[in-house]
């Protein structure tokens, strides 16, 4: 049994970046990271553009101008302005090359075909120059940039339809247990509804990992061995829940050993989640999480999350930790460090009732985990505690 710190270090050191490239349509690339720099194929804006609604002017010495026309966004005609002439113009519309400033409409008085502006302008006023955002062939976004909704919109505005991104890991979720049935079936005596795979699938989706398959295996050694052999050979990451303890019908550990999965560690001095296994088979990471739901999800956030970030070659590989003031009292029994389900809010944190590793209801209300180290036995109201912020 190893410490939490040692387990985290081993996950970081063992999990290697995939560094594989894949091409994605821009509109489906959200959450991915650029594999290489993206050059702009055009100037943006591609023409001189009005920054606001108003009047485009060919400047002269007077404050009065003759109005000769109008230019809307999307217009393809280009009026020719002589000195002292103006056109009505709207935000985003192309500014005629013979205009050299735009006066906002709030500072203009109009009478028939003549306008008077409040003050003299300098050339270029309220005109977005060609290539103001980015020039043709310049780098629009650098390698490793995360494609957020804003980044997707920016690339689409440049006319880019496909991008080269880092391939995300292919992931398999495997749940074990004869007692598990699917929601919607009749709940007969001795059975429970399977939730771990749906819970972990949702956690993966929330982190933008979508290449995930789910598998269920009965408490049978040969079936467990066959299923694990296939998913380990076909995926970059395998997450197993249940069957990793030492009961008569816990076959996961035995199967992993026969498949020659290298054990990096097994069992961590913590609560919940002590019977956690992490191993490696060729380039595939293998996690066997406890079957109790709260323990499984805790181990996912503390350890599997790190492996996912490392596989994506990201430096920020742990969930953020902050110091928060406790709103609760809590007494710890035993000497294992503990992760406590909690609600964090603006510098304070409430430790919830129901900390059992099987208690999903409490986790459902949580947005944080309070970390209670080995040497600490009590938390009192107003104590400062280390708090892990969960992605919600």
TrEMBL record:
Q: Which reaction does it catalyse?
A: adenylyl-molybdopterin + molybdate = Mo-molybdopterin + AMP + H(+)
Domain (MoaB/Mog): give its ranges. 172-310
The cofactor named in the record is: Mg(2+)
**Can you name a GO cellular component term?**
cytosol
Q: In which pathway does it act?
A: Cofactor biosynthesis; molybdopterin biosynthesis
The answer on whether this UniProt entry bears the keyword Metal-binding reads: yes
From what organism does this protein derive?
Flaviramulus basaltis
Q: Which family does it belong to?
A: Belongs to the MoeA family.
Q: Which Pfam families match?
A: MoCF_biosynth (PF00994), MoeA_C (PF03454), MoeA_N (PF03453)
E.C. number(s) listed in UniProt: 2.10.1.1
Q: Which GO terms describe its molecular function?
A: metal ion binding; molybdopterin molybdotransferase activity
Describe its function. Catalyzes the insertion of molybdate into adenylated molybdopterin with the concomitant release of AMP.
**Alphabetical UniProt keywords:** Magnesium, Metal-binding, Molybdenum, Molybdenum cofactor biosynthesis, Transferase
- What is the official name of this protein in its record? Molybdopterin molybdenumtransferase
Q: Which biological process terms from the Gene Ontology are attached to this UniProt entry?
A: Mo-molybdopterin cofactor biosynthetic process
Say yes or no: keyword Metal-binding present: yes
């Amino acid at each position: 049994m190893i410490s939490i710190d040692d387990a985290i270090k081993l996950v970081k050191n063992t999990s290697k970046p995939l560094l594989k490239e894949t091409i994605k349509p821009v509109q489906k690339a959200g959450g991915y990271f650029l594999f290489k720099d993206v050059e702009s194929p055009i100037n943006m804006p591609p023409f001189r553009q009005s920054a606001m609604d108003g009047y485009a002017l060919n400047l002269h010495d007077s404050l009065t101008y003759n109005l000769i026309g109008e230019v809307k966004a999307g217009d393809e005609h280009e009026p020719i302005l002589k000195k002292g002439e103006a056109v009505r113009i709207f935000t985003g519309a192309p500014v005629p090359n013979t205009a050299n400033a735009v006066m906002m409409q709030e500072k203009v008085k109009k009478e028939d075909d003549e306008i008077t502006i409040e003050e003299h302008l300098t050339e270029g006023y309220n005109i977005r120059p060609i290539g103001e955002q980015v020039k043709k062939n310049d780098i629009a976004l650098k390698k490793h940039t995360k494609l957020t909704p804003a980044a997707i919109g920016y690339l689409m505005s440049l006319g880019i339809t496909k991008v080269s991104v880092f391939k995300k890991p292919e992931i398999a979720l495997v749940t074990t247990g004869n007692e598990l049935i699917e929601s919607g079936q009749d709940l007969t005596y001795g059975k429970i509804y399977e939730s771990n795979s749906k819970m972990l699938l949702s956690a993966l989706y929330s982190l933008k990992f979508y290449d995930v398959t789910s598998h269920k295996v009965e408490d049978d050694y040969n079936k467990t061995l066959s299923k694990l052999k296939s998913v380990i050979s076909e995926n970059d990451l395998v997450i197993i829940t249940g069957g990793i303890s030492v009961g008569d019908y816990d076959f996961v550990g035995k199967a992993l050993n026969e498949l020659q999965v290298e054990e990096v560690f097994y069992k961590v001095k913590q609560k919940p989640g002590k019977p956690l296994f992490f191993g490696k088979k060729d380039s595939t990471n293998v996690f066997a999480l406890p079957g109790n739901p709260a323990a499984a999800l805790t181990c996912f956030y503390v350890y599997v999350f790190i492996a996912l970030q490392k596989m994506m070659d990201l430096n920020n590989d742990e969930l953020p930790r902050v110091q928060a003031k406790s709103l609760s009292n809590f007494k710890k029994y035993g000497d294992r460090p503990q992760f406590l389900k909690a609600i964090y809010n603006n510098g304070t944190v409430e430790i919830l009732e129901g900390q059992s590793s099987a208690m999903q209801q409490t986790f459902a209300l949580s947005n944080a985990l309070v970390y209670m180290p080995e040497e600490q036995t009590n938390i009192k109201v107003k104590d400062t505690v280390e708090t892990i912020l969960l992605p919600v």
